Amino acid sequence: MRRVNFVCYNHAMPKIRQALLASLLVITSGCASTGDQTDISSSSAPQIAFAQVKAEPESFTGQPVTFGGKVLNARRLKEGTRIEILQLPLSSSSQPTTDLSKSQGRFMALRKEFLDPATVPPDTFVTVTGEMAGSVTLPLDETVYTYPLVHINNLRVWAEDDVEPPRIRRPISPGPYWGPYWSPYWSPWPYYWW
After folding, report:
1. Among the CATH numbers 1.10.357.10, 2.40.50.140, 3.40.50.2300, 3.60.21.10, which is that of 50-160?
2. CA 36, chain centre distance (Å)
3. What does pTM read for this prediction?
4. Average pLDDT, rounded, for the chain
């Protein structure tokens, strides 16, 4: 008896492979380009330090900045909503730190569009991205203070959950009651389900 080996070859396979490869390329290129990004930390320009701006706020007028801190108060004015912020250093995710002793001063942020001051109450942590607009001198207690002024383009309000320090959780691992004969679900042979 003669033995015959059959080889199955589908003529559509090369076309299917090409279609899969093309769709894979489209998907990966779609993931690489995100279009309109509003990410605070996506600026390619070098960041201007707050200490530089505080020393000479007028010389940085029109330059983009990103500062963060703790809201001290917010007021609604004719020209917009003005927020007084205690500056705090930013983390790599543009989140302000909670250590108030690291502050280098105060600044004002002005939002020209309507912003209800109740949405940024005192003690709220925020990150402001915008353009420097010189400075404003206002009374502070019994003296006058020169605040660097930022026109807000993007305002990120951090929720209390975001600001809390991370909690250390105990890892789940086998303990003294874990094992083939001493696990909580072990029962002698035969296994019965009650």
Report:
1. 2.40.50.140
2. 16
3. 0.61
4. 76
